[in-house]
Amino acid sequence: MRYQITGKQIDVGEALQTHVQTELGTVVQKYAGRPTDVAVVFSKSAHEFVCEANVHLSTGLTATAKAHATEIYAAFDACAEKLGKQLRRYKRRLKDHHKERPEPVELFGASSYILARESDVEDSEPETLAPVIVAEMQTQIPSLSVGEAVMQMELAGAPVLVFRNEKKNGVNVVYRRDDGNIGWIDP
Questions:
Q1: Whether the predicted pLDDT of 60 surpasses 50
Q2: How far apart are CA 6 and CA 21, in angstroms?
Q3: 32, 59 contact by CB (below 8 A)
Q4: What is the pTM of this model?
Q5: What is the DSSP code string of the chain?
Q6: Taking the alpha carbons of 24, 27, 29, 34 in that order, is the dihedral positive or negative?
Q7: CA within 20 to 30 Å of 132's CA: 7, 69, 119, 173, which one?
């Protein structure tokens, strides 16, 4: 397993790196059989330390956790606990469905655009109705079942996930509704 432990304007010492590798290694090996890499980023927000962790599994799923605390070790421990909880839920769902994915998730390339937000001045009329593109990036769209897409969305803590439906080969969307339920768009 590959570890990437970094700090944003914080010096991450050898002791903290060893602690992260030991603790995350234990948590990840307990719940995920074949993790590929782990990325942990430490930063400081006002008086609190922030720890963000991403674990990429060989099945193509990604688990993400973020925690805040006044001490850097406490922030990491809270983050590792959240990550362990997500991985435990993921493993339980896999067992409940009695279906293990024999091959990794297939990813398809797509373009992703960042559009400029509308100007705060409402008095002036826009020159054109086309939005201004600020940035263009490449993104990956996974090929998943609907259940796996919901699981991936919950693991990532994302409000929405675009995926290619394995059964129908069409692009679908799952999202978290305001009432707490999950919505699924199947065009």
A1: yes
A2: 12
A3: no
A4: 0.57
A5: -EEEEEESSS---HHHHHHHHHHHHHHHHHH-S-EEEEEEEEEEETTEEEEEEEEEETTS-EEEEEEEESSHHHHHHHHHHHHHHHHHHHHHHHHHHT---SSPPEEEEEEEEEEPPPPS--SSPPS-SSPPEEEEEEEEEEEE-HHHHHHHHHHHT-SEEEEEETTT-SEEEEEE-TTSPEEEE--
A6: negative
A7: 173
> Rg of the Cα trace of the chain?
20
User: How far, in Å, CA of 59 to CA of 36, rounded?
Assistant: 9
How far apart are the C-alpha atoms of 77 and 51, rounded to whole Å? 9
Please give the average per-residue pLDDT across 17-33, as a whole number.
82
Q: Mark 123-140 as b/e (b = at least 16 C-beta within 10 Å).
A: eeeeeeeeeeeeeeeeee
| Residues 112-169: tens digit of each pLDDT | 777 777 664 455 666 667 778 888 888 888 888 888 888 888 777 788 989 988 887 7
Mean pLDDT along residues 90-115: 67
Whether 175 shows a pLDDT value over 60: the answer reads yes
Q: Are 173 and 185 a contacting pair, CB within 8 Å?
A: yes
Complete domains list, the chain, with CATH: 2-97 (3.30.160.100), 106-185 (3.30.505.50)
